[in-house]
Amino acid sequence: MGQAFYGFPIAFKNSTNSSNSFSFSTSFVFSIDAPGHGLTFLISPSMDFTQAMPSQYLGLFNTTNNGNSTNRILAVEFDTVKSNEFLDIDDNHVGIDVNGLVSVESAPAAFFSNKQSKNISLKLSSKDPIRAWIEYNGVERLLNVTLATLDTSKPNFPLLSRQMNLSEIFMEKMYVGFSASTGNITSNHDVLGWSFSREGKPQDFDLKLLPSLSTPSPSDFDDLDPIPDPPSDSATVKPNHTKTMIIICTLAIMIFMI
Question: pTM, whole model, 2 decimals?
Fold first, then answer.
């Protein structure tokens, strides 16, 4: 179980007008090499997840706080194990989670092919890199989640689309990052590139610069770069490896526009 965060809080609401959350968009490339249990992109008021549990709790919640409105957490899960207690639809799905692990919206992992005009299934735990886009329109109060393979342009239609007012969940400042966990099966969860923007589309990154999916050795984590100063506009951060238990976030490309 583990988490990896951008090290500084980001403003998601105006202190003078708390009825609307700012729009945001993020794009990242990830890989999961075995089904157990999954990866999430999350927005949280805190980076402290010391009380979170592994396995089906995805490193986010525990038996006591799962579902509590005081969590103030939005997560998009890429779930590779079916957990009946959380009403999972299958063992290969994407879900939008609010304060708990019973998704408010979910669908089997797939992407819309613009060329074929149909949905094509994706296996989340195939180890093949997958591109994800998560976009929130603060005016329309609409959250979209889109997937695609690396050799595919962004689909015209999202996999998930949910009307929701995130100002009811978010505090003025929140942290953005990832969590992952395993159960009986050991698996690697890699984030190969990540771009985030609080307004407009996330800046694209060169897919040719993404790192390989070779298994790192312990020495790879001996000398980690410190967290950089907050960017004034946009920035590309040097490769930075963060490993906590089974989550491996290889942030070779990390672009923030906040």
Answer: 0.84
